[in-house]
Design the sequence.
């Protein structure tokens, strides 16, 4: 997924990247490296030992993201896919003189997603929890552009959040400093297993890959039957095993004769 996001960024002219790391950092560094094969320059900022939050992470990375003299930088969530126009959001941000600009779409699933509230001029006036209060709000789709000054007052290495913290303080101190960029961009989530399943199938269909998806170094016995499943890397499937509508994660081994349907198999589970 991170390689998909990087390819998208590079295709839109954004190639100087800093990846924020904490949990299992080797899983990202191993597949991205320095980003050269993707046309990018990739460096890393590691939150350690504690998770620093949605504002503390950017604060820690400020020396890296501003070392070429730019005060504005994109912040891209690593768990969503979108096709938002980065050039358009950057232009809107520059024209408004905002500290932060959030990419938004109408919140059509407000029972599931909390929302962003805007005034008639596109200024963010608040954030609401999912449910009836979020009806008529906007959904943040994981792309924003911010000025370094939005985070500069934070203590480097201390945890802080953007929504419910830094951004709320900015809006109070200077109304209009946090703005929304409303668009009709596509938004694909992987926040739940169902989300991940739908997104994976959609990507496979668009790329002409019908049926199952099989990752790198998979070892499948010729007698095994794989039906509409997603197999990650380093997966081994034994003789006569049947895997139907399953997700099999990195390093899992499916025993010979197993019959699995609509389940997630991790390395070390009873079926692995």
Sequence:
């Amino acid at each position: 997924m991170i390689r998909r996001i990087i390819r998208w960024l590079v295709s839109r002219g954004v190639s100087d990247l800093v990846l924020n790391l904490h949990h299992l950092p080797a899983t990202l560094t191993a597949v991205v490296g320095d980003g050269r094969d993707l046309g990018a320059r990739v460096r890393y900022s590691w939150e350690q030992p504690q998770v620093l939050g949605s504002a503390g992470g950017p604060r820690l990375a400020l020396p890296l993201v501003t070392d070429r003299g730019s005060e504005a930088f994109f912040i891209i969530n690593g768990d969503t896919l979108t096709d938002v126009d980065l050039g358009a959001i950057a232009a809107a941000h520059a024209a408004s003189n905002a500290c932060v600009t959030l990419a938004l779409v109408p919140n059509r699933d407000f029972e599931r997603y909390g929302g962003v509230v805007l005034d008639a001029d596109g200024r963010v006036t608040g954030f609401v929890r999912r449910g009836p209060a979020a009806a008529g709000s906007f959904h943040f789709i994981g792309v924003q552009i911010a000025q370094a000054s939005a985070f500069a007052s934070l203590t480097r290495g201390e945890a802080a959040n953007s929504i419910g913290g830094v951004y709320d303080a900015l809006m109070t101190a200077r109304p209009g400093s946090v703005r929304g960029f409303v668009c009709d961009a596509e938004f694909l989530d992987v926040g739940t297993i169902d989300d991940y399943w739908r997104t994976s199938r959609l990507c496979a269909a668009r790329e002409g890959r019908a049926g199952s998806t099989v990752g790198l170094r998979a070892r499948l016995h010729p007698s095994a039957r794989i039906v509409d499943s997603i197999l990650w890397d380093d997966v081994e499937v034994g003789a006569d095993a049947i895997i139907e509508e399953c997700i099999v994660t990195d390093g899992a081994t499916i025993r010979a004769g197993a019959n699995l349907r609509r389940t997630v198999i991790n390395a070390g589970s009873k079926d692995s």
Q: What stands out?
A: Residues 209-265 form one domain. The radius of gyration is 21 Å.
